[in-house]
Recover the amino acids of this structure.
């Protein structure tokens, strides 16, 4: 599912993380069941393209939501999630575990209160996810 920044929605600031680099990214749910990365804030995508061919995204509750664009979501000045679907009507922002393990060659290790994202080539820790109410952010 893909879309472009032609239509843009805003996400409340409390749902965004401001990084020291000046980047603002949504709080992503690290989802082992998600097929694709999804953002409800298509305006955050770089190199975005308007979606003209992808069918609606099927959300966790079974509803369908239109994908307005696809693009890359910066997590840091040098790390991007690629081919992120811009779905303004989505109530959640998702990072697909299967996509980051395949495309970025990361491992994701889950523990009771946190998860660790690690680069398999360098062994470097990329980030930590915090468990809240059964979900990892």
């Amino acid at each position: 599912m893909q879309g472009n920044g032609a239509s843009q929605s805003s996400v409340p600031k409390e749902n965004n993380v401001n990084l020291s680099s000046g980047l603002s990214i949504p709080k992503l749910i690290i989802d082992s069941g998600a097929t694709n990365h999804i953002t409800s804030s298509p305006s955050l995508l770089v190199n975005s393209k308007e979606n003209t061919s992808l069918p609606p995204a099927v959300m966790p509750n079974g509803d369908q939501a239109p994908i307005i664009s696809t693009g890359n979501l910066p997590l840091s000045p040098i790390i991007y999630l690629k081919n992120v679907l811009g779905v303004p009507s989505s109530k959640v922002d998702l990072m697909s575990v299967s996509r980051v393990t395949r495309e970025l060659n990361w491992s994701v290790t889950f523990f009771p209160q946190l998860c660790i994202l690690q680069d398999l080539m360098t062994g470097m820790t990329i980030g930590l996810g915090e468990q809240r109410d059964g979900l990892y952010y």
User: Anything to note?
Assistant: The radius of gyration is 14 Å. The first helix runs from residue 97 to 103. The chain has one helix and 14 strands. Helices lie at 97-103.
